[in-house]
Design brief:
- The chain is α/β, with parallel strands linked by helices.
- The protein is built from 14 helices and 15 strands.
- The strands form four sheets. A seven-stranded mixed β-sheet has the order 2-10-9-8-7-3-4, sandwiched between helices. A four-stranded antiparallel β-sheet has the order 11-12-15-14. A two-stranded parallel ribbon has the order 1-13.
- α5 links the parallel β3 (118-123) and β4 (139-144).
Length: 393
């Protein structure tokens, strides 16, 4: 305490060490298989790693790169958006490179919110969303995705009811972490209609855009009237299995990019210069790379989902992302996901993450636990073998 005040800014007082840090430390301490944090246990394509090495040796990006990002990457991002989704962006004025998607979210919210503005976000939500809204002085308004018939669903009436005159923007994540939900065309159309009707901005986190197993990924910016009011965020980490590189980007209208850049320049200014050149090459990989990635992860999803069901969990099979959400109540007597996850390493040598930490309404997420399947097949097979011991107790 100094001058009678806590050291931590009151906006961040509710945020301590992230659940990912806690569970990863628990995995290390117990020697458990870590299915908690969403990072692959193998690197991405060799040719992309070598592209980073070439850039380092050639001196490309070793000094400060341009603030908006190197031109090669901005051009590759713009070409990717046009090739994949028919969205045309000017790489000079409508693309901004960031230090991963997390910084992109932070910069967007810091730029676009005034203190007291409300942000509607789908619950459960990635934990940085709540912290970034708080740092910007905004108020988060959760709209809960509800489990139903083996999947999670968005209640559009609840979404509409959450919007009021204080609402500034909707923070949307699809494919959705942690539930694996991929919003449908009809759902996205309803979101777009609401945004246009109420004159709202939308920030969309689309980092799992290439990890869709059922359905399709449709950028919200592709709907009528949404390009000029949507900040679209993605990154290289999940798609190319280089999560430590932290190279992300936004695409948006010149006015929105200018606003976000105004905040971003005082966060990191720039980062990852040589890695930006490598990611530019990664975005130009042939469709066969993306197809193989998706097929590999679909097989791993199926392996883990089947194993979890056989172990006695209720399983919500994801349509996208790295993650399977499970219900621990069918195991018998289990109700508290946080306590369950803290005990799981000692019980069977596996680490998972409790979904409750991603909710404002903690009771809604209490019995649900998330497992990551972005690991080697032999690791998942061993984890499944260990988890099956739960059904025998």
């Amino acid at each position: 305490m100094t001058q009678g005040r806590p050291l931590l800014n009151r906006r961040l007082a509710e945020f301590g060490t992230t659940i990912f840090a806690e569970m990863t430390a628990l995995a290390v301490r117990t020697g458990s298989i870590n299915l908690g944090q969403g990072f692959p246990d193998t690197d991405g394509p060799d040719e992309i790693r070598e592209a980073a090495v070439r850039a380092l040796r050639a001196g490309h990006g070793n000094q400060y790169p341009p603030g908006p990002g190197v031109p090669e990457l901005r051009t590759a991002v713009a070409e990717h958006q046009q090739r994949r989704y028919g969205l045309v962006y000017d790489p000079d004025t409508e693309v901004l490179v960031t230090t991963g998607a997390t910084e992109a979210v932070a910069a967007a919210l810091l730029a676009l919110l005034e203190p007291g503005d409300e942000v509607v976000a789908l619950e459960p939500y990635y934990d940085s969303y709540a912290a970034c809204i708080a740092m910007a002085g905004g108020t988060r308004v959760p709209v809960t995705l509800h489990p139903h018939d083996g999947a999670y669903r968005l209640d559009l009436d609840e979404l509409r009811a959450a919007v009021n005159p204080r609402t500034r923007l909707i923070l949307l994540n699809t494919p959705h972490n942690p539930t694996g939900t991929v919003l449908t065309r009809d759902e996205l159309s309803a979101v777009a209609e609401l945004a246009r009707e109420r004159d709202l901005l939308v920030v969309t986190d689309e980092v799992y855009e290439h990890l869709v197993f059922e359905g399709e990924h449709i950028p919200l910016a592709s709907f009528p009237g949404m390009r000029e009011r949507t900040v679209t965020i993605s990154s290289a980490g999940k798609t190319f299995s280089f999560t430590g590189w932290k190279v992300g980007w936004i695409t948006a209208s010149p006015e929105l990019v200018t606003a976000v850049r105004s905040a971003k320049q005082f966060l990191t200014y720039v980062s990852g210069g040589p890695l930006q050149y490598a990611v530019a090459e990664a975005l130009c990989l042939p469709d066969s790379y993306f197809d193989a990635l998706r097929a590999d992860l679909r097989a791993k999803r199926d392996l883990l989902s089947t194993g979890l069901a056989e172990a006695g969990f209720g399983v919500y099979e994801p349509a996208g992302t790295y993650f399977v959400t499970t219900d621990i109540r069918p195991l018998g007597g289990e109700q508290d996901g946080l306590a369950f996850c803290r005990a799981l390493p000692e019980r069977c040598g596996v680490v998972a993450v409790p979904n409750a930490v991603f909710y404002d309404h903690r009771d809604q997420g209490a019995p649900f636990v998330r497992f990551a399947f972005c690991k080697r097949t032999e690791v998942l097979t061993e984890a499944v073998s260990r988890l099956k011991g739960l059904a025998m107790r």
